[in-house]
Write a structure and sequence with these properties.
By secondary structure, the protein is mostly beta strands. It is built from 2 helices and 10 strands; from the N terminus they run E-E-E-H-E-H-E-E-E-E-E-E. The chain has a 4-stranded antiparallel sheet, with no helix packed on it. Strands 1-4 form a two-stranded antiparallel ribbon. A two-stranded antiparallel sheet has the order 2-3. The longest helix has 7 residues. The chain is elongated, with a radius of gyration of 19 Å.
């Protein structure tokens, strides 16, 4: 089978080179820095909107893809923030805005990744939204 006949479909291992920019043109991520991304198509290993847009592409094809929040990382949920007391963190921990923090939610018995949104005298504001929640993604 020639490369021209090979298309992206379920159960295929796909390798993509990409540049991810946001609406303001900021480059958020690029395979130029990390090398091509490999994934198994049809198994939700990448965001739904990107996976759907890649379906049917041929090997070597170049395409501009726009993924809206609902098919990317979801809308930003302003309720998904929580103020944690300063003493919930080890004294020797260097905390910076933007750093990821793993939390354990006893109600759902699962770890959740949060991000430090603010550091204040009253505590540390943790944001459980993905950093790209609410963003339109341009690949």
């Amino acid at each position: 089978m020639s490369n021209a006949n090979r298309v992206v479909a379920d159960d295929c291992v796909v390798q993509i080179e990409y540049t991810l920019t946001l609406d303001d043109g900021e480059v958020y991520d690029s395979s130029a820095e990390t090398g091509p991304l490999d994934y198994l198509h049809g198994y939700g290993q990448i965001i739904a909107g990107l996976e759907a847009a890649l379906t049917g592409m041929q090997v070597g094809e170049i395409k501009d893809i726009v993924v809206t929040p609902e098919y990317g990382y979801g809308e930003y949920d302003p309720e998904a923030v929580e103020l944690a007391p300063l003493d919930a963190f080890p004294d020797d921990m260097e905390i910076e805005v933007g750093m990821p923090v793993e939390l354990f939610d006893e109600e759902i018995d699962q770890e959740i990744e949060a991000y430090v949104a603010e550091i204040g005298a009253d505590g540390i504001l943790l944001d459980m939204n993905h950093p790209l929640a609410g963003e339109t993604l341009h690949f």
